[in-house]
Specification:
244 residues; 2 domains; Translation elongation factor EFTs/EF1B dimerisation domain-containing protein; 39% helix; EF-Ts_dimer_sf; elongated; Helicase, Ruva Protein, domain 3; elongation factor; Tetrahydropterin Synthase, Chain A; protein biosynthesis; 8 helices; two-stranded antiparallel sheet; alpha+beta
Length: 244
C-alpha cells in the first residue's frame, strides 16, 4: 500500500487497520482522508516562498495552455509525481476551455492559483485532490502558481510553443521545462509559406523569447531601439538569436 500510494508507513498501517486489511478500501480511505485533512492542513499553514518548479505547455489544434507549478527543490520538480501533477493541471485548464463561452474569435484567460485549484480534470476529479496527493507523496510545498489559456475559433490563427530545457511527456502530450514561451501567429494568405516552415520559424522565435526575454513585440512607428543592444527589450529590435 505504501509503494502504491506513496503515503508514510504509519499512515498506511492506520488505513489498513481501519479497513480490515483490505488494500483497495484502504487506498480509497487514504485518498478521502488526504483530500479532507491534507488540504485543510495545507490551506491553513503559511507556505514559505517556493522558487523551483516547472513550466508546462500543451497545444491541441485551436487550444493552448501554459502553466507554472512551484516547489521547494529542483529534485522534486523532476520526479514523475510532480510531472503527473503538471499533466493534470494542463488537462484541467483544457477542460475549462472546452466549456468556456467566448464571444470573440480569439480569447485568452489568465488564471491565478485559486482559480486553477477550483478546476476539475476530464474525469471530474477536483485538481485539489491531485495537489493533495502530490503533497503527501513528495512532502514539499506545492504551489500551482498561474496559467494562461488561449483559444482560437478561426482557422487562420495557429499556435507554437517551446520549453527549455525541453522534455516531453508523450503519454499526455505535453512538454515541460524551467522556461517557456508560446506564440500565436497568422500566415499571410498571399505568401507561399508552408505550415511546416511557419512552425519552424515560430518555434525559433519562442526559443529567442526564452533566451533574450523581450517585454513586448514593439512597433517601428512608436518605439526606438535601445542604444545598448544588450538591454534591448523590444522583440523587433533584438538581434535574432538564431542569426548568431
Amino acid at each position: 500500500l505504501r509503494k502504491k500510494t506513496g503515503f508514510a508507513l504509519n499512515t498506511c498501517k492506520k488505513a489498513l487497520e481501519e479497513n480490515a486489511n483490505d488494500i483497495e478500501k484502504a487506498e480509497k480511505w487514504l485518498k478521502e482522508q488526504s483530500s479532507k485533512m491534507g488540504w485543510l492542513k495545507v490551506s491553513t499553514q503559511p507556505i514559505k516562498k517556493v522558487s523551483e518548479g516547472l513550466i508546462g505547455l500543451k497545444i491541441e489544434s485551436s487550444k493552448v495552455v501554459m502553466a507554472e507549478i512551484n516547489c521547494d527543490t529542483d529534485f522534486v520538480a523532476l520526479t514523475d509525481t510532480f510531472v503527473r501533477l503538471m499533466g493534470s493541471t494542463l488537462d484541467s485548464c483544457h477542460k475549462m476551455l472546452d466549456s468556456a463561452k467566448f464571444l470573440d474569435s480569439y480569447n485568452q484567460i489568465w488564471l491565478n492559483q485559486e482559480q486553477i485549484e477550483d478546476l476539475n480534470d476530464y474525469n471530474g476529479t477536483p485538481l485539489k485532490d491531485h495537489i493533495v496527493e502530490t503533497l503527501n507523496k513528495v512532502r514539499e510545498n506545492i504551489v500551482v502558481r498561474r496559467a494562461i489559456c488561449i483559444q482560437s475559433r478561426t482557422d487562420d490563427i495557429s499556435f507554437v510553443g517551446y520549453t527549455h530545457p525541453s522534455q516531453k511527456n508523450n503519454l499526455n502530450n505535453f512538454e515541460y521545462g524551467k522556461f517557456g514561451a508560446v506564440l500565436a501567429y497568422r500566415i499571410d494568405p498571399s505568401s507561399d509559406t508552408s505550415i511546416e516552415l511557419a512552425q519552424e520559424i515560430g518555434r525559433e522565435l519562442c526559443q529567442h523569447i526564452v533566451g533574450l526575454n523581450p517585454t513586448k513585440i514593439g512597433s517601428i512607428d512608436n518605439d526606438e531601439p535601445n542604444e545598448k543592444a544588450g538591454e534591448e527589450s523590444c522583440l523587433i529590435f533584438q538581434k535574432f538569436l538564431h542569426d548568431e
